[in-house]
Amino acid sequence: MKSPNVIYPIKKPIRRLSHWCIRLWDGISGNEYRRVRQLRTALAVSQQNEADLTQQLTQAQAQCLDLQQALENKNQQVHELWEELDVLIAENDTELQTLKRELANQTSALSNCHSNLVAVQRFQATEVPATAPLSNSQPDTTSETNLANWKIAFVGGHQATRRFVIDTLHTSHGLIHTPVEIPSHREVSTSQKQLKDKLADCDLVVSIVGYSNHSLTKSLNHLRDKGALKGSILIPNSRGVTGVVRDILAFVAKQPDPIQEHTD
Asked: CB-side exposure of 49: number of CA atoms within 13 Å?
């Protein structure tokens, strides 16, 4: 049997080393366990997140399908609306063409009525002086008045009025010389010098003051006051184109013939 004094010094360090190893192992095992628990927890969270994302993706896909279906429905509605619009445009175009034809027909009818009215007015202009009652003291000589030697100017008045009066004097009363026409300043601006030059050779100036503006009348009166006009100024008292014709013929009937006057 060995002596206890020899073994004891060796057992004590071995026991201490074993205790240290046990404590070390316990420490290592505890850390690993906690690490495993953390990893398992993280894995569970990741799996839950994956499940949530998968569910959200499924919902998004379903919404995408719904939106795609709604878009197809809208496209179909737009296509149908375009077809309806094409039909409406075609119908309106047909109606518009019909209205245009009706307007053209009405315009043509109105033009014919105007032509008939002008013809009636011309007929009245030639018939009224001849059929008007004669005064006992002053016989009517307008129907016999001949304007072959007269140079007449018209100042102011609407173009249609001037045209009708001139045509009547040409066709029914022997007017040969082309009359001078001075439109209102609203139509054509005429200076006083131009007015003087145009009226210089006229035997009669008919001023239709109802349709001429103040400046034109003022220029005409200024030329008359200066003695720059060769002929007389007539302001018709009657209204309407036939009245203007009658006033011109009545005035001329009382005046000497321009050629005889110049000869004398």
From this structure: 6
Residue partners of 76: CB distance under 8 A and separation at least 6: none
Tell me the CB-side half-sphere exposure of residue 229, using CA atoms within 13 A: 22
168, 129 in Cβ contact below 8 A?
no
Structure tokens belonging to residue 203: 């035997």
Closest by CA to 168, choosing from 119, 101, 130, 216, is: 119
pLDDT at 13 over 80: no
Q: How far apart are CA 157 and CA 210, in angstroms?
A: 7
Residue pair 223/194 in contact by the 8 Å Cβ criterion: no
Give 225-244 pLDDT, tens digit per residue: 888 888 889 988 887 788 89
Q: How far is CA 41 from CA 34, 38, 46, in A?
A: 11, 5, 9
Contacts of 154 (CB under 8 A, 6+ apart): 162, 165, 166, 179, 180, 181, 182, 206, 208
Q: What is the mean pLDDT of residues 241-252?
A: 91
d(CA 79, CA 75): 6
Helix (H, G, I), strand (E, B) or coil at 199: helix
Residue with structure tokens 């009348």?
A: 217
Read off the amino acid at residue 261. Answer: E
70/76 Cα distance (integer angstroms):
10
Question: What are the CB-based long-range contacts (under 8 Å, 24+) for 137-143?
Answer: 141/253, 142/246, 142/249, 142/250, 142/253, 143/249
